[in-house]
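Meet my pick.
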Amino acid sequence: AGATAAADLAARGRSVALVDRAGRIKPCGGAIPPRLVRDFAIPDELLCARIDAARMVSPKGEAVDMPIAAGANKGGQPHQCYVGIVDREHFDEWLRRRAADQGARRITGTFTQIARDLDGIAVVHAKSEDGTAISLRARTVIGADGANSAVGRQAIPGFKTAKFVFAYHEIVEAPHPAAGAAANDSYAPTRCDIYYDGSLSPDFYSWVFPHGRTMSIGTGSAHKGFSLRGAIGELRRRTGLAELKTLRREGAPIPLKPMKRWDNGRDALLIGDAAGVVAPASGEGIYYAMASARYAVDAVEALLATGDVKALRTARKRFMKKHGTVFLVLGIMQYFWYGSDKRREKFVAICRDKDVQELTWASYMNKELTRRKPVAHVRIFFKDLGQLVGIGAH
């Protein structure tokens, strides 16, 4: 989010400083939809894998494959029939370099606080890697510093009430192609596997996402006493991936609900995880982070042009108008379907349905709730109802 905002503002001729810590890698499955690739001009070389299907696995081990081709078309026009996978270690750095190429000043350091000069203008304080103090006078400050945002805590009213889950994953070497499939067909280089199992996550899901020569094996939960690392150890054991070499381990808090307020009504604005724009149920955050940055750039431009501080509100307003319904639907879905293993079994069973697969992928690939085939929506409603009352057929 921060790199995207910096690149766009610099491209518009603004003086921009991009402050970020060195070596920080976000724990993330890395899936990006075709809409992101198109909207943000992501080059093919950043895609470390191309996914053509997802496999949903129930608590009892029932597996349902959902081919992406089922929902790849929109309006009768062929679209990209795969989901890209990026490694955040390389993807994020490429975005930061792009911002610098557009003219943003890159500063490697850690934000500490926002102060005010005698004119009331914000002064951003940070420390470089060697401890040198950094001071930046800024007409606007964009906080893109994660779910536990220091900018948010200092500048945005009500931010301390933000809630999040904690995500953890391990990046491991992928099985060599010559070795064949992993045990029990638990790994494929072009398929994302998603595990809905309360023993691996009591309130979210676990995953195995291919990253080309490596893979991300992760999980998440809001339960403070739940051992994420232990769950991943168990998932790797079950899937025959325990003996693969572990390259790195990463964890971070991830919000699953947009903040009610993104700005301070003056000169500070949150985006990305700091604004809470990670989709419930799916945990998807890359596209929404970058989209929130675009709305923030427009809001900052309006503020600088008019001096009207109300312009900052438009970032959240426009984002929620476009994506709020999706977040609401996914939030309800997570609350209900992830509530017990019995419900998770039914949820995975519903995923066998071709209408569900088509509409799910069409919505995900294009980042909007598809309105095609209204009859299919009606059919899905009654199939869901049947599963809820225990009379639905697979």
